[in-house]
């Protein structure tokens, strides 16, 4: 489980095509300080498993399903990436609960700079808008953010200078893809209530309390 508070702006140092998968080597001295084989590291919001680690770099295998459902398939040598280690038990939850399971990719539509922050509009893929609400939480490329405005097929976020300087969101341009993970609580509520918003029928144990 992650929090969406990026620890480090890393870099892809190589991409190896494995046919039905890819092997990425990424530079991240901070997140590899205590990384070992089998550990998890979120890369642009995607939870990946460390294969090897050393010299401030780590490798991770990414299967075709992940490449297809996220923006990782567009990464190349030299690409900058947001990196975060899982939250330690008892640690501070600085952002919100983030699983590292991308729900889809959005597209940066527009950037509107201001004196002290920047508003970014992102187009939503079909099926995700129902989970995005004004002042709710959303993860964009692994960054925990608050939704400013939620439309039928888009949402906006406000980025402070720190986020612009220390994450990939400072360099994303209109047309660029971003990984999106909606608040998992919204998906659980929908499942519990049923797709049509109705409460599930009572089970053999009796009516729901």
Structure description:
With 209 residues, the protein is mainly beta. It folds into 2 domains: 8-84, Beta Barrel (Elongation Factor Tu (Ef-tu), domain 3), CATH 2.40.30.20; 104-193, Elongation Factor Tu (Ef-tu), domain 3, CATH 2.40.30.20. Helices cover 11% and strands 39% of the residues. The chain contains 3 helices and 12 strands, in the order E-E-E-E-E-H-E-E-E-E-E-E-H-E-H. It has a 6-stranded antiparallel β-barrel with strand order 1-2-5-4-3-6. The chain has a 6-stranded antiparallel barrel with strand order 7-8-11-10-9-12. Strand 4 and strand 5 form a beta hairpin. The longest helix has 10 residues, at 184-193. The two termini are 30 Å apart.
List the topology elements.
Elements lengths: L7 E10 L3 E7 L12 E4 L2 E9 L2 E7 H6 L10 E5 L19 E10 L4 E6 L13 E4 L2 E8 L3 E6 L1 H6 L10 E6 L1 H10 L16
Antiparallel strand pairs: 1-2, 1-6, 2-5, 3-4, 3-6, 4-5, 7-8, 7-12, 8-11, 9-10, 9-12, 10-11
Helix content: 10-25%
Q: What is the CATH class of the largest domain?
A: Mainly Beta
Order of helices and strands: EEEEEHEEEEEEHEH
Mean pLDDT across every amino acid position: 89
Largest sheet: 6 strands, antiparallel, barrel
CATH topology of the largest domain: Elongation Factor Tu (Ef-tu), domain 3
Given helix and strand content, the structural type is mainly beta
Distance between the termini: 30 Å
Task: List the uncertain runs.
Answer: 203-209
């Amino acid at each position: 489980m992650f929090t969406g508070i990026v620890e480090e702006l890393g870099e892809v140092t190589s991409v190896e095509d494995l046919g039905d998968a890819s092997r990425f080597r990424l530079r991240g001295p901070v997140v590899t300080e205590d990384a070992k084989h089998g550990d998890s590291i979120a890369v642009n919001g995607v939870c990946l498993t460390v294969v090897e680690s050393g010299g401030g770099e780590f490798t991770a295998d990414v299967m075709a399903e992940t490449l297809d459902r996220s923006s990782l398939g567009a990464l190349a040598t030299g690409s900058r990436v947001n990196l975060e280690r899982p939250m330690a038990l008892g640690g501070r939850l600085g952002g919100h609960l983030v699983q590292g399971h991308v729900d889809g990719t959005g597209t940066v539509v527009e950037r509107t700079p201001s004196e002290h922050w920047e508003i970014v509009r992102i187009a939503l893929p079909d099926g995700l808008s129902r989970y995005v609400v004004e002042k709710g939480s959303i993860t964009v490329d692994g960054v925990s953010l608050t939704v400013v405005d939620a439309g039928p097929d888009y949402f906006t976020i406000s980025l402070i200078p720190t986020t612009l300087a220390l994450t990939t969101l400072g360099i994303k341009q209109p047309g660029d893809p971003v990984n999106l993970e909606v608040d998992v609580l919204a998906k659980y509520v929908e499942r519990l209530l049923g797709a049509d918003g109705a409460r599930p029928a009572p089970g053999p144990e009796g009516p729901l309390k």
